[in-house]
Specification:
Elements (H helix, E strand, L loop, with lengths): L25 H69 L7
Length: about 100
């Protein structure tokens, strides 16, 4: 591709074109390498931080689940106890039993 540097297009004149290749020196190459390594390190840190955050949230939710299951079991026991008391009172009334003083 020829891209002339001048604004005029005249026949018979040699035009200078913009070069399509560029060179990277050793210092630039080192800088680019360090920058790529830094980006890779930041990506790794972001991923590990996100993973630990998700693990922490999962642990909290599991604790809440275990607490809820424990509460359900306690409420079932309490419900069974109250039902048995009310059944005893109902059976005592049906048998015409009188409470003692």
């Amino acid at each position: 591709m020829l891209i002339p540097r001048s604004n005029t297009w005249q026949n018979g004149f040699r035009k200078r074109t913009i070069g399509t290749s560029f060179k990277i020196g050793p210092i630039s190459l080192k800088f680019i390498t360090v920058a790529l390594l830094a980006i890779a390190a930041l990506f790794y840190l972001a991923q590990s931080t996100q993973a630990s955050t998700f693990k922490y949230k999962i642990m909290e939710l599991e604790e809440q689940k275990n607490k809820a299951l424990t509460d359900v079991k306690q409420l079932e026991v309490e419900s069974a106890r109250l039902k048995s008391l009310s059944e005893i009172q109902n059976s005592a009334k049906s048998l015409n039993l009188v409470p003692t003083d």
